[in-house]
Amino acid sequence: MSENDILLVTHLVSLENIRSIVFSDRDASREHIIGLFSSIFDIQQFSKLNSLTFGRVDRWSKARHTIVLCDSNQHIPTQLYFNNLENLIENILSSVHSTLQHLTLLACNYSQYRHILHCLPNLKTFVIGYFELSSNDEVNDSSRADEKYQQLISLTILDCQLLIEYIRLILISVPSLTYLKLISFRSVYGPVFDGSFWEQLIQIRLSKLKKFEFCFTYRIRKDARVHTVNSIIASFRTPFWLYNKQWFTTCDHLIKSSYVAIYTIPIYLNDHELSIRYDAMPINSVCRLIEYRTTDDNLITEENISTLNLHGLSMGEQVICDLTDALSNNTTLKVLDLQGTNLDVERLEQLTDALEKYTKLTTLHLGNNQIGIFGAQYVARLLRNKSTIETLYLPSNRIRNEALQYLMNGLEDNRTVTTLDLQSNGIEDSEVQYLAMILSKKLHF
């Protein structure tokens, strides 16, 4: 947009009738446009102006809200920042401080947030795209620590990178909030995933809050303490959430993406993403295994799955814990493929314990996991106590000698297995003969 374009607008529109101005973020010249605008117009000419938008946060937030794209190590593009937001506040915002009620910014930091609320005493709605703590923020600034901004009733932060202490400081400074939307992609599990933290904060500091929409996610790390989906959702099942507020929460373990997400608002997921899901509802909820699919109309659908293919995924403790929870309530899973998932003995024991109680599975693939002697004992116990498995794949698992003996003992008491794959285990001829004898007996049973 050129100066002539802006001047043309002034001949077509009465400035005193304009209520909303939007500066687009389609190119890197947004700040130039803002500067050009402020040099041509006296912002006070817009006497009825009550809404200012600096950048389209809706398109950007959807991309950041797609689970596959969220990474706590990603940083927002630098062009989304105003190089000198303070100048913008002084030149534009301060001039409309008495009328401005709605403000949207693509990015700001903690100090800027405080400054804006201090300068705009009538601001009702504040939408922020990216919110983080900058190096210039005064961590121990006691002069404004207790300052309250009673005017604000609606706050939306679409990507909050602040520590929990700063999130708390932000919220207790706006005690009149009736609407809060908060999206945060965390690097590790923390207090934001604890329903009791929010319950206490809201009851004591945000008593007027009527609607709380949120989505919090974190990436599962191998060396981190395990927090099962069931344990996370439990803190959102209290009477405060279910009956007092009726804010119903969902928690997903997104297996392929290795994220945990807890949310009250829809999230955008990859096609064929697998989820272990718990819902916090007034009635007792169960854990479900879900696969997300994209339709021809680009709609996301949820399907209960009969085949769970985790081939090649690393089966850490988090996956095993949530999977065993899901199996306790599942009625549709028939095929479980855990080929090449680095199952260690401890996790194999957890899995076989759960499978012993699960009565729908017909096919189990444990190939290329090097389960050895100890793993063979757990598989043998499963075969003795499991009456539904018909097909068992165990190639490349170091099943020979003593390990094979355990397996054959389990097969002797099993009456359902009709297909057994033991390729690439280095089984000796004498062991093959003994195995053939056991299978022969089963055929004549």
Quaternary structure of the protein: single chain
* Total of helices: 14
Poorly predicted sequence stretches spanning 5 or more consecutive residues: 59-83
Kindly name the structural category.
alpha/beta
**Proportion of residues in extended strands:** 15-25%
- What Rg do the Cα atoms give? 29 Å
The count of DSSP E runs of length 2 or more, i.e. the number of strands, is 17
Q: Give the strand line-up of the largest sheet.
A: 1-2-3-4-5-6-7-9-8-10-11-12
Q: Mind describing the biggest β-sheet?
A: 12 strands, mixed
Mean pLDDT rating: 82
Principal-axes shape call? elongated
Share in helix: 25-40%
**Spatial gap, N to C terminus:** 85 Å
Q: How would you describe this structure to a colleague?
A:
The structure is a single chain. With 445 residues, the protein is an alpha/beta fold. It is 32% helix and 21% strand. It has helices at residues 3-12, 30-40, 57-64, 85-91, 110-119, 164-172, 195-205, 229-234, 239-244, 317-327, 345-357, 372-385, 402-412, 429-443; strands at 20-23, 51-54, 102-109, 125-132, 154-160, 179-186, 211-219, 249-254, 259-263, 274-280, 288-294, 300-304, 307-309, 335-337, 363-365, 391-393, 419-421. Strands 1-2-3-4-5-6-7-9-8-10-11-12 form a 12-stranded mixed beta sheet, with helices on both faces. Strands 13-14-15-16-17 form a 5-stranded parallel beta sheet, with no helix packed on it. The protein is elongated. It starts with a helix and ends with a helix. The model is unreliable at 59-83 (pLDDT under 50).
